[in-house]
Write a structure and sequence with these properties.
alpha/beta, four-stranded parallel beta sheet, 19 helices, about 10% strand
Length: about 475
Amino acid sequence: MYTSFLELCGFTPNEIRKELPRVKKAFGILKIEPEDVKLAEKRIQEIFDINLEGIRKILSIWIKELLALVLAKEEKKKIVYAIMPSPAESYTAAMLASEDLYVGYPDYVLQMTMGALFNKLDPILEAGEKMGMGPGGAHCGLNKTRLGAHALGIISRGDLSLAWGIACDEGPKTDELIHEIFGMPVQYINRSQDSDLKEFPRINPRALEYLTGEIRRAYKRFGEVAGVKVTPDLVMKAIKLRTEFLENYNLISEIMRTDPIPLSQADFLLFHMITSVCIRDNQGAIDAVRILYNELKQRVEKGIGVVKKGAPRVLWGNHTPLADPGITRMVEDMGLAAPVSEIHYLISRIPTKVFDDPIKTVANRFFEMGITTSVTGRISDIINICKDWNLDGVFWFNHFPCRLIGTDAMMIKKAVKDQLDIPMLILEGEMYDTRIYNAQQMRTRVETFAQMLKMTKATKGKE
């Protein structure tokens, strides 16, 4: 039963023999039954392009992350949890310090596996709602996932949670709730969020120094709890690993400029999220992205694409839904090519400034991204993306529970119209909870938007 699933997800025969006992244990904790595995196999084949070895290999890495998360306590690891947005390099550095340590992002791992692959996220979300984040309260699905996973005993109480309050305010509040209920210690990392709307892209040196100090204090607490020291050398080594992944990732980004686009954003999301979380198999991820690039080059040479050549090209605001990548496929079925997403564009950029202090380099990254600074900074990034990629429109799946990325859609739409004169479709939804939206109603609006873009593009072609 498990062997065919693992083969489908890119596990080698040796890996299957090694991991099978862990798979059985973890799937038992997750209540993944034989019928769930069969349904997951069908779902994976429908949504992801498993004809590509690079896709299969990156799927195996996500499954390995799920096993590491669920079995961390049983495997006698010290456990430190993190929330987004936060610098994955920091946690990669920590894991490089000790094999007896688990560091990870439980909500993202569960979204990418229990959501995208198994479609079994609802019980976890419902458990989070019963524990204090009531339905209808506009609570983020990521936070409900984290709380629900604790409530169901899917993940163990951590030895420490590093709660980053640099952008999202509900994330640290959720960790405070988890602390009160389950007794998990929390270290908060904050930053000064008072900035002039005209400040971006200039970085306030005082704000940078404050965040650098917050991260340094968090590392100190982390070392006390985990029994390891995150040295500047380890942080630099982690940055180099991420940079090596990004260098290859960016080659794929460039190949997405071709027409037709050779890869779905549903598949590319598997790689986007690797850049945002810490994983155990960094070399495996680097290998996967290299393999995928070579496969996509062959597709481009043969003119193979996921949509027809000449299809309207749109920016996908923020990133595509994690729990339901089928929505991404639906948009492509309507004849829209999405070569780039906002997050894809931001995370693909190599840090513009490297300081002697690597912790300061990590902190500086947050101030380089408009999405974590101000609405004017975000608009600046989006306008630049649309110009750089010569896009025909903007597709905005608005994550309404988030005060960081779900409250500025109308301002962005106006700026896109005024500065670029291209249309933007706003769909209200939840990137982490499929119960919030009606997919069929969404399909109707997407179809109308696609037809409008096709007509506009055809008209411009005749001019």
